């Protein structure tokens, strides 16, 4: 059975977000990624597998090593999806801030 991974479930996990941040700064092997966490290496490998299945990470075989890279195109797709919601909430908070300032000035 081939389960389709949801990218938003993948990035909801704090460990996976940390892995993305690490790999965004520098492409790394699974061992190098795992060395940044106190959890067991198989656990980190499972997180890497999920990120790869969601296409947030890509892998490149380099001899015996597999190097993981951030997939900027997939990250852009996520950012593009979230942007309208960010704008909406920015507008709502700005409106609330204006209301609160007016309320404060009336005191």
Automatic annotation (TrEMBL):
Keyword line: DNA-binding, Transcription, Transcription regulation
Q: Give the SUPFAM superfamilies listed for this entry.
A: Winged helix' DNA-binding domain
The UniProt record lists the HTH arsR-type domain at: 1-90
Q: What is this protein called?
A: DNA-binding transcriptional repressor ArsR
Organism's domain of life? Bacteria
| Range of residues in the leader sequence | none
Read off the InterPro entries from this record: ArsR-like_HTH, HTH_ArsR_DNA-bd_dom, HTH_MetalResp_TranReg, WH-like_DNA-bd_sf, WH_DNA-bd_sf
Q: Which organism is it from?
A: Chryseobacterium indoltheticum
Q: Which GO terms describe its molecular function?
A: DNA binding; DNA-binding transcription factor activity
């Amino acid at each position: 059975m081939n389960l389709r991974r949801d990218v938003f479930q993948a990035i909801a996990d704090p460990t996976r977000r940390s892995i993305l941040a690490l790999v965004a700064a520098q492409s790394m092997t699974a061992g190098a990624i795992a060395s940044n966490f106190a959890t067991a290496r198989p656990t980190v490998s499972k997180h890497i597998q999920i990120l790869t299945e969601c296409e947030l990470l890509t892998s490149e075989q380099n001899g015996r090593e597999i190097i993981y890279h951030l997939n900027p195109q997939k990250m852009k797709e996520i950012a593009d999806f979230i942007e309208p919601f960010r704008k909406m909430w920015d507008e709502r908070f700005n409106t609330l801030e204006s209301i609160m300032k007016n309320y404060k000035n009336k005191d």
